[in-house]
Write a structure and sequence with these properties.
The chain is of the alpha/beta class. It is built from ten helices and twelve strands. The protein has helices at 29-41, 57-68, 86-90, 92-97, 99-105, 118-132, 150-165, 184-187, 224-236, 250-261, and strands spanning 3-5, 12-14, 16-19, 46-48, 75-80, 82-83, 113-114, 137-143, 169-175, 194-198, 214-216, 242-245. It has an eight-stranded parallel β-barrel. A two-stranded antiparallel sheet has the order 1-2. Strands 6-7 form a two-stranded antiparallel ribbon. Helix 1 packs across helix 2 (57-68). The chain is globular, with a radius of gyration of 18 Å.
Length: 263
């Protein structure tokens, strides 16, 4: 696996990162762990998570992976801005499996809790660290910051600076869609080291006001041959950008790593 130093950081990471947004679609914890192991065995060392991914299921799966390896050999991210309610936290799989029935009677019960306040983010981040069974994350992202108001983001900055000074987050970033719609006073702030967004947000003919170091959405609609072209292009580039990949199946992860990630 090609490795890079992520621009703006000293993180030495795999060129491909693994996204865990769909990990909860595998209902058995052993299946989720097998998917993560396949990514790790294929050379991927960067894992992207969030509190809202499976209502904490993704974070707990990553905690199990970290037990098997040296935590310092991996880079792990999580996000604040979206949290889970108490029933989602206590019974995440029940919420996921019964989503169709629950929506008929309680349409809002499965909606994530949106909270960009310092108090809400502090609680959410503490729960994330507990689920991940770690004292720190390598990157803490504000999740979908374009949905927050300018005042909410400004009020959150001192709290983000505190997490970094305490060593709970090595780096701070913004992750989500429409990052360029956010005030330049925010995106240019020294606290934000890493930007993560979808490839579709930055086409070749679109002027970039920020340069994302991590991009997702490369492979979702591509054929195997098209994926190969993308990976060959990525491998030939000397840049320090990362591509996020995700899959729900062990076989597909193993095939991807074998075809695109091995040196």
């Amino acid at each position: 696996m090609n490795r890079i130093v992520l621009d703006g950081t000293d993180l030495n990471v795999s060129k491909i990162g693994f996204g865990t947004a769909a990990l909860h679609h595998s209902f058995a914890s052993s299946e989720r762990l097998a998917i993560l192991r396949a990514a790790l065995d294929g050379g991927i060392t960067h894992f992207d998570s969030a509190r809202v991914y499976g209502y904490g299921i993704a974070e707990k799966a990553l905690a199990r992976l970290c037990v098997e390896v040296d935590r310092h050999s991996l880079t792990i991210t999580t996000k604040i801005g979206f949290d889970v309610n108490r029933s989602q936290q206590l019974f995440p799989m029940t919420q996921i499996v019964g989503r169709t029935i629950l929506r008929k009677f309680l349409p809002d019960i499965q909606n994530p809790v949106t909270d960009f306040s310092p108090e809400g983010c502090d609680k959410s981040f503490a729960n994330s660290l507990s689920c991940l069974n770690t004292e720190y994350v390598d990157i803490l992202f504000v999740h979908e910051p374009a949905l927050a108001s300018l005042s909410q983001l400004e009020e959150l900055i001192p709290w983000l600076e505190l997490q970094k000074s305490l060593g709970k987050a090595r780096y701070i970033g913004l992750a989500g869609e429409n990052l360029e719609s956010i005030s330049g006073n925010i995106t240019a702030h020294d606290i934000f080291d890493v930007f993560q967004t979808s490839k579709q947000n930055f086409t070749a003919d679109k002027k970039r006001s920020i340069k994302p170091q991590i991009e997702y959405g490369y492979f979702s609609s591509l054929s195997l041959n098209e994926r190969r072209i993308v990976m060959e292009d990525a491998a030939s580039q000397k840049g320090s950008g990362m591509i996020l990949y995700s899959s729900r199946q062990v076989a597909r992860v193993s095939e991807f790593c074998a075809k695109f990630c091995n040196d």
